[in-house]
Amino acid sequence: MTVQTRSLAPSAPASRFGLALLLAILALLFSVSLTGCTRQADAAEAGVNRAVPIRSASEEITGQEIAVVTHAPNVPPPITRTHPTRVIVNLETTETVAEIADSVKYPVWTFGGQVPGSFIRVREGDLVELHLHNAKNSTMPHNIDLHAVTGPGGGAAASLTMPGGESVFTFSALNPGLYVYHCATSPVPMHMANGMYGMILVEPKGGLPKVDKEFYVMQSEFYTKEAFGQHGMSHLDMEKGIEEKPTYVVFNGSVGSMVGDKALQAEVGQRIRLFVGNAGPNLTSSFHVIGEIFDNVYQEGGSVANQHNVQTTLIPAGGAAIVEFGAEKAGNLIMVDHAIFRAFNKGALGMIKINGKDDAKIFASVKGLGFKGE
Ligand SMILES: [Cu+2]
Fold first, then answer.
1. Least confident of 123-132, 134-143, 306-315, 357-366
2. Which terminus has fewer CB within 10 Å in the chain: N or C?
């Protein structure tokens, strides 16, 4: 710092003092005007961002359709309708046994027969008629709390269903976004720890920007009395759950659900969208794709792509995020929870294989140890 900017000192000659006074007045006027503009801009922005709409159900529901629901990593096709309709969603809760790691079995409770539960896709304004069936051979009542619901318990009380029974409730999909759903039957942590969660996308009225590939990825934890990787049947360890010390942290229900032959597939030049959920029940995910940068992130699953050029995005338990990126480079991208022990020691790792012609201008290994990586 120099002191030259302080040359207009009180001891300066009168002419310089006059000039200083003039400049000071001009500066003050400019400052007031600038502050005024800033305040107006702030107010305008606040007006846009802080307006709280009172939403209402669509007045005209035209026709009805049965929702196409999918198992992870698949996503139902984009909605091309331009009007709200009655969407009938059929979901069945089941109690079965799943393999959560190589030769490791776990008695899971599910929505739709698998962990995570079926992906549901509706349009903002739709009237959703949700039919929850509980399989005859279930031992427990189950229900569903969808975070996309405006209404008591997200539908939990209205959908409590005994084994062999069916409950039906309707809700208007008022807010667009990506939402988690889960069982909320007591004890809730037990039902969630056993696999009862999935996701529902409420597409904005104008739809989402077109991409080439969409995938459903959901992180969750398993708490077992047995050690990580111990073969055979596992059992829920409630104490580990209470202590928030999962044995497994996985994507799409099991260790290795999306590696090797089961890796997600895309081509160089394609645009990819991941609908990423975090069921928890406890941990927050630091979702990251090794070797890629998210061009757009719809933080916390909201309807606005409010971040660009992101390395890692936080996904809270019971929350979601939508991430989008272009596939510029052939090879394997690795999805992880960047709380990195979870990825390498507990299972939170998956792959996206990008096929096609490579572009050495984007990345080239010039001299290394002779490792022929992908
Ligand atoms: Cu349940």
1. 357-366
2. N
pLDDT digits (tens, 9 = 90+) for 283-314: 999 999 999 999 999 999 999 999 999 999 99
Location of structure tokens 């196409």: 68
Q: Is 324 helix (H, G, I), strand (E, B) or coil?
A: strand
CA of 247 to the centre of ligand 1 (A): 21
What separation in Å is there between the alpha carbon of 170 and the centre of ligand 1? 19
Answer whether 268's CB lies under 8 Å from 299's CB: no
Cα 90 from Cα 150, distance rounded (Å): 19
- Cβ neighbourhood burial of 122 (10 Å; 0-12, 13-18, 19+): buried
Query: How far is ligand 1, taken at its centre, from the CA of residue 153, in Å?
Result: 14
- Tell me which DSSP letter residue 78 carries: P
**Ligand 1: distance of its center to the CA of 142 in Å?**
4
Residue 361 confidence (pLDDT) above 70: yes
